[in-house]
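Data availability (excerpt). The following record was deposited with the supplementary files.
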Amino acid sequence: MAGKLILVRHGETEGNVAKILDTKVPGLPLTERGAAQAKTFGSNLLAPPRALLSSAALRARQTAGYIEAATGVTADVLDDVHEVQVGELEGLNDPESHRFFQRIYRAWHEGDLSPRVPGGESGEDVLARFLPVIEKLRTSFLLPEAGGGDVLLVNHGAAMRLVARTLSGVTPPFTTNNHLDNTETIELVPRPDGGWDCIRWGRFVPPFGYEVSPTADDPMG
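Predicted structure:
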């Protein structure tokens, strides 16, 4: 059987606690709670992954490091799977800055990938760098002839939700309202036709018709 692609949001960071829009690499480190979340995630895996990968951001590398310690699988860093870049909003934590970004982010999920924060990325930019990495992981690890086993990719809340929405067809408002807590996952299974099925989105499994109110946790990072 083909393995799963498991997108893992990193553990809690100092930026998450302070609601800071922290997107530049390397970014802020994990908190003690974030480290504990990563250790727990790794120890709760039923089997070691076929491959363990992370973005270049410090918080993702630290999270993957704790999973490596728990599983014995070496963590490698990938380019182009970092968080959505928020340009002029970088480092801000006021409610209006968050609302501004969320208006743009919702537009991406609703089909308009062109808006961007001044100095930041559009949805088109994010997908143009991220999706080729996913396709390479698919062909390298996730086809039946590749030998099976899951791939864990530790990355970031806003980017992974947009990527999963694009690949699997799960739609808003579910995708925009369900922000994913730290170390929650989105799990994708490759289909023979080249598409993907989403079999888990945070706490939820298909069908994804749940009425989900916007969650209070930090939506990105």
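Summary of structural features: The beta strands are 5-9, 51-54, 75-77, 151-155, 185-190, 196-201.
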